Structure formats: structure tokens, C-alpha cells
Input
Amino acid sequence: MLGLIGCAHADQREVVRVFAASSLTDAWADLEARHEAAHPDHDVQLVFAGSQVLQMQLSHGAPADLLAVADAGPIEALGPRLGPSEVFAAGELVVAVVADSPMRTARDLPMAQRLVIGLPDAPIGRYTLAALDAAAREQGQPWRQAVEARVVSRESNVRLVRTKVELGAADAAIVYASDLVDSPLRALPLPASWQPEVRFHLAAVGAPTPASEAVLATLRSPQGRAVLRTHGLRPLP
Amino acid sequence: MLLLLLPVGALLVGGAAGNLATAARDPAVAPAVWLTLRTSFTALALIVVSGTPLAWWLATSRGRLPQVVGALVDLPVVVPPAVLGVGLLLALGPQAPLGTVLASAGLTLPFTEPAVVVAQVVVAAPFYIQAAASAFRRVDPDLLIVAHTLGASPPEAFLRVALPLAAPGLVAGASLAWARAVGEFGATLLFAGNLPGVTQTLPLAVLSAMEGRLEVALALSLVLLGLGFVALLGVRAVPGRGAP
Output
């Protein structure tokens, strides 16, 4: 019943459909609420999935106005389908552990019993491999091999990675710091030398509309930047 | 036996313990419920209307062709749903030959509600068609012969003799096909996408909710469980099912 009433209203509003990486779920839900409060004639529709899943859907013609992903890979792959892209936020990787874990720093990773990371196709997976490569240069290959031996699952997006630990199916994971803002899990920071350059990219899909431009303006406004900071992201530039 | 009951039991226990009332008011729940009901019943209608004549033909024809067609009808059951989704994208996507034909008529299928129906029809139709063909085969051919000698035309014999006798089997098959359509996930995810309000059916909503709103995932799972029980009533409670 309520859904039908909602549909009637949505018909008159201008729709802006945003395809956003799962890591951006809370930040963009907050941006949506603020934007629709300021622009009642706009309907921001959010679709969250792993960045590579969004890329696949767009390459098969899925309808969207804006794309926000966790690294440059999907932007490059989609090429001419997208307008000019920009980096709108930076992030960082952390090791997520259960509250009572004996692990104290990221160097304790081999102590994990069941480690979950992202698929190599997903941005979080790529960042994780880059971080482990950097760690291996410091800690040595046997350390790296010990960590790889602890991996029990690779997930298609970072929120699924986090869920596995929250559900108790794993005891450690490598996620973005922004994923632990509202989570019972503990964050172990990575040494600066291991940290990859985590950058979130935004691009318009197809021709921009006044409504989609307005959403971008909301994102770039001081309030929009404050929203990103609240959710653990560093707005750029 | 215990293994079959464990997931259901855990869901029911979790539901009793959690705060389901708040979870059920999450904006993802109502659209997913309505979309799932709309698409699954549309799919069921398409399956029954086009599948019943096909099942009758499979049951009453002799020779090579019905056997081959019967095997082709069975194919979606043994192919993984994700593979079916890839196949649908390749066959009907905007780059595909058939897809470009549809596009010129203004119809892009992928990532729309009709795409959900298409995915559900593909995975669920075999269950109905095979159950219906099986039910039709159990109709005593002598009864049909008697109907012909009494002056009934073949369509009349079908409608007034075969259909009523096979009805319990058809209802059971339809219930099974509907349950399969409701639970459809892999083909829908790939072909129709996971767009809330447009193509996010209950199973897809459960996956999305699992990424952070576990209580919502539980509420959605219990709705699906309830729909499954309804389907079970259709399969098991119809009198005369399986009886000669």
C-alpha cells in the first residue's frame, strides 16, 4: 500500500539514479536524504553493488545518471560511456578484527584464524593485494604466505567482507576505514608504507541533467563534504 | 532430515528474538514484496497459458520430436541459474542481435521489470510443464476414446475430460513453478540486475540487506519462508494428487 503511494509521488519527481559502490552505502544514503530535503522535486535512487558489478551492469545498458566507484578500474573500462570523471574522496585500508581478538597491529595478520578479503576483481581486492605486496617487502615472503594461507573467502564487495566477520564466519578482514565507522568491529591501522592510494571516483553516465548536476553540487558543497567526513571518507580536492 | 530443517529453524528462532517490526518497515521491504508477487504471478500466468498446451502435446504425442522437446524443456533445471542469466544477457542484451531488434521497437529488456518475469519464466516453466505432462499421462486414454465416440471434438475432450482429471497435478506443478519463480536469484541478478523498486525481488533484497542490515535480511527471509509455506500448501494439500 505504502509502496504504491510512494510510486505515485515518484512519477512527478525528477529521478537521478546513482550507481554507487557498496563501500559508499552510508555516505550516499546520507547525501540522498540531504539532497531530497533541499530538493523535494528530485528523487535520488541509489543502487549499491561491488564496483565491478556496477561496471558490468552499465556495460549491458543498465540505466544510470551517476557512477561512484572505489577505484579507477570501472571508469577506464567503461570509457566513452561516461562523461569526464573526478576523484571525490580518499580512503584508507584497515584490518577489521572482532572486539576480543588478540591481534593488536596489522603485522599480527598471520595470527588470524580465518581471514576474508575482496575478490581481485573488486577494488577492495586490488587495494588489499597492493597492500600485501608492500607489506611483503618489509615483512618478507614467508609472512605474506602465512597471511594468504589464512584467507578463507574472497567476496565481491567490501560490505560482504565486513559481514562475514560480523557474523562470526571469519575473525579478520581487510576493509576500508569508512566501513568500520558504525560497526562493532575493531580497526587495526596499516603502516603508512603499506597503505595503497585509495581513491573514490565519480562520473556522469550519458548526458548530464539539471537534477544530476544538482546532486553533484550537493556532494561538493560544505555540507556534502561534512557528510563524507562523518562516514570516514576524506573529501577531495 | 535435520540438515534440511536447520536453516528454517535458525531463521524462525532468529525472527522470534529480533526486532522484526522495525526491520519490516525498512524502505527495501515493501517494494521487494510487491515486485516479487507481481512478477511471480505474471510469470506463472505465462507459464500456465503457454505450458499447458505444450504439456498436453508432450503427453499425448508419439515419436522422436516430443522426446527431444521434452529434454529441451528440462534443460533450465540442470543448468545453473547464473549461467541462464548470462545466456539471457547474451541473447537479449542491447548488443545481441535479438536485443537490437527489440531495441529498435523501443524495448530494452535487461534491468527492467519484464526482464525479471523473463528470468522467472525460464527457470520455473520446466517444473510446471513436466508436472503437467506427467498429470496428463495419467489420464486414462480410454476415457478420451469414449469421449470421442460420444461426439466430443479433441479440444472438447481436452477441456472437459482431461483437464479436470489432471487438475490436481496441474495445481501441484503450478505451485512448484511459482515457488521456484519467487525464489529465483542467479538469472535475475545477472539479467535484470538488482535495482531497488524496479528489479530487486525478495531474494535479491536479502543479499543486499546482508551487507549491513542483518535484521532486515532476517525479516525478508521470513517473508520468503512464509511464501514457501503457501506454495507447499498448493503442492501437498490438493486432494487426489498422484492418485490413479
Notes: The mean pLDDT of chain B is 87. Residues 29-60 of chain B form the longest helix (32 residues).
